[in-house]
């Protein structure tokens, strides 16, 4: 079996990446050695665009029918994901939603599966398991009060429509800077952030691990 973690963060070793790695550790723990392969894919390491509306994926009897035809760094990734047993998506939240890099990814990931037949059935045959891990600077109360969930749910809606209802994990009030004294930041203090992180982030890591362990 194969499970992939898609890191939609520009940071390769910070909050989102750490939680994705914990989730993959949980996946591996759930099976005997060698039964499952895992890989984290960092989107910001790749050169690609969103959908270009070439519609090659919709050409009747075309060689790219049902799959993206754009030959860039994302092409081999999409080939891998087509046969995945599970995918865990991770993203920091920018302006109440997932990063632009992850949004461009999912345009390319979802659209080839969509058809213009009556009722818009999809071409998906592999109903893989999915999950979403979100990291954000705001508290849970702020997330719910300011409409963050409505924006994030759009991504989850498409995942459920194409593959499966995703499990979700939210990491709130995350630590952003290595040295807060270097930045203009008056809304909270480094001490407040550090105190919260010391208490909460180990719990978030454990939740990510459990999410992965129960994914398949």
Explain this structure.
This protein has 216 residues and is of the alpha/beta class. The protein has one domain: Rossmann fold (3-Layer(aba) Sandwich). Helices cover 37% and strands 14% of the residues. It contains six helices and five strands, in the order βαβαβαβααβα. A five-stranded parallel beta sheet has the order 2-1-3-4-5, with helices on both faces. Helix 1 links the parallel strand 1 and strand 2 (37-42). The longest helix is centred in the C-terminal third of the chain and has 24 residues, at 190-213. The protein starts with a strand and ends with a helix. The relative contact order is 0.19. The mean pLDDT is 94.
Q: What is the arithmetic mean of pLDDT?
A: 94
By DSSP, the count of extended strands is 5
Q: Mind telling me the CATH superfamily name? A: Flavodoxin domain
What's the overall geometry?
globular
Helix and strand content put the structural class at alpha/beta
What is Rg? 18 Å
- Helices, by number, come to 6
Layout of SSEs?
Blueprint: E1 2-7, H1 15-29, E2 37-42, H2 74-81, E3 86-92, H3 100-110, E4 129-135, H4 140-145, H5 148-162, E5 167-171, H6 190-213
Helix pairs in contact: 1-6
Summarize the structure.
Residues 1-119 form the NADPH-dependent FMN reductase-like domain. This protein is α/β, with parallel strands linked by helices and 216 residues long.
What key attributes describe this structure?
single chain, 216 residues, alpha/beta, Rossmann fold, five-stranded parallel beta sheet, globular, ISF_SsuE-like
